[in-house]
Amino acid sequence: MSQRIAFLGLGLMGVPMAENLIAAGQDVTVWNRTASKTDALVALGAQAEPTAAGAVANADVVIVMLENGPVVEGVLFDSGASDAISSGAIVIDMSSIPPGMAKDHAARLARTGVGHIDAPVSGGTIGAAEGTLAIMAGGEAATFEKIAGVFAPLGRATHVGPSGTGQLTKLANQVICGGYLAAVAEGLVLATAGGADPTKVREALMGGFADSKVLRLHGERMVQRDFMPGGKCQIFLKDLNTVLDSAGAMSLDLPTATLIRDLYSETCDLGAGETDQAGVLLAVEARNPDARLGDGPDRRP
Amino acid sequence: MSQRIAFLGLGLMGVPMAENLIAAGQDVTVWNRTASKTDALVALGAQAEPTAAGAVANADVVIVMLENGPVVEGVLFDSGASDAISSGAIVIDMSSIPPGMAKDHAARLARTGVGHIDAPVSGGTIGAAEGTLAIMAGGEAATFEKIAGVFAPLGRATHVGPSGTGQLTKLANQVICGGYLAAVAEGLVLATAGGADPTKVREALMGGFADSKVLRLHGERMVQRDFMPGGKCQIFLKDLNTVLDSAGAMSLDLPTATLIRDLYSETCDLGAGETDQAGVLLAVEARNPDARLGDGPDRRP
């Protein structure tokens, strides 16, 4: 069953996601703060609206894909868009925002009969373009069932629990990826310091238990010293601080998460906040100045 | 070109590796401390010798797959086997031993014209059985080239650098796997503490950047609370202590590796040294007693 979809936020992730919904035959109305971003999608069959309130007015489903929690709050609530959403409609917030804020949004929308699913993603712009995002969905199971067809062209959605747990699972994802990144950086530094060729080390480890997307993608960036983003360290540090805020609110002691946050903080303190997440290598190397991977220059923003 | 291979050490890894060499048509002579382990391989076409010195006497290539450094030292040198190896032969030590010891073994064998490659593996008994081990090889490039055909039935061998760097790369592998394991444990605890279903969280993360063999295999063991080994925490802790010894000898500061060692030390202090490496979850849970994954009982040795 085709649903009328409003799509708010056409950034690096939003554009390919909206394209995939249009290609799947969905009825999509787009809005973006910079209106010119809507032109290419209109050419593919979308409608465009100049205001978020206008875009959501006739929607069955409102997808939000914005930069962070305050931006979502501004576009969805402060602008008045939330008042324009029909009772019975469902908001899917695919932005990455703090779990507590997602729960608050769900509660506020519920007062006017609007459903809410927090559904952040992992997989980056490649996953968005290929429609293979890992989608972590929190909210009521019945609400999740109603929008399964909307998720299908975007990737693989999993309902993980009640409101806010989609965002919390995204934070778990960040902890896990951060642990992978720091461990790959330290492993490569260890082997290189003892005379191994870091490019060969990464190759040797692929296929064993150390294999991962992070070893393949970010490990290659490390050994090539290519720190062009990708996901930037300073954004990742913000996520890791949100992890520790959320963990602290639950009185959790997560030593690995804490250390990873500190390593990304060190990376940003080195002036490398704009580099790719693989830039955590720079913090490990700063602690070990005799163990640099490779002789070439760094490629960085 | 078929080479006469002596294979020393028929444990959980050695047996399937020797089987794969025999199946590939190699001329294999086996030796094991407990001689009865050789019977099944003789039935497949191997020859058996009652002493290590006897096994290596006519070999072009001697493969060693023993428990640890001291055992390798005992079998290869203290028993006198090294004196029986022909000049021009090559010892491939696929055991996991300290990098410094591997370099020492290479130097001692070189005095009698015997080559040495340190070539530890990752991939476990499954990789050994399937012939898909990740093999990390250190030593002279010309020596490595001569034995490429021996490695082929066992897995994918990569020459990473001079003598000892194969072992160092295995240690890098352990650092990386340990980082993955600790991060997966903390991520699952974080999401579960906030009300998410840990089984669903793991499913949701697969396919995203957090995907890895560790998330798939050890993550499943964590959410099912199945801590039957697999690789035991106490063996892994020994490896991580070797990591820190080797790092210390090079004056390296590796904070993630240090923390992971501490977490595995905590796991063993909880009496869980015999559990699978996934048992690091028990240390994270011990720090966070209100955040247990799942209600079921632990399955453990």
Short description:
Chain A has 301 residues and is of the alpha/beta class. Chain A contains 15 helices and nine strands.
Question: Could you explain the architecture of this structure?
Answer:
The structure is a homodimer of 301-residue chains. In chain A, helix 10 packs across helix 14 and helix 10 packs across helix 15. Chain A is built from 15 helices and nine strands. The radius of gyration of chain A is 21 Å and the shape is elongated. Chain A has a six-stranded parallel sheet with strand order 3-2-1-4-5-6, sandwiched between helices. Chain A has two domains: 158 residues, Rossmann fold, CATH 3.40.50.720; 120 residues, N-(1-d-carboxylethyl)-l-norvaline Dehydrogenase, domain 2, CATH 1.10.1040.10. The mean pLDDT of chain A is 96. By secondary structure, the first copy, chain A, is an alpha/beta fold. The relative contact order of chain A is 0.09. The interface between A and B is large, with 82 and 82 residues.
Topology:
The structure is a homodimer of 301-residue chains.
Chain A: E1 4-8, H1 14-23, E2 27-31, H2 39-44, E3 47-48, H3 52-56, E4 61-64, H4 69-78, H5 81-84, E5 90-93, H6 99-110, E6 115-118, E7 121-122, H7 124-130, E8 133-138, H8 141-146, H9 148-151, E9 155-161, H10 165-193, H11 198-205, H12 213-224, H13 233-249, H14 255-272, H15 280-287
Helix pairs in contact in A: 1-7, 10-12, 10-13, 10-14, 10-15, 11-12, 13-14, 14-15
Task: Throw out a few tags for this protein.
homodimer; 301 residues; Rossmann fold; 2 domains; 6-stranded parallel β-sheet; 52% helix; elongated
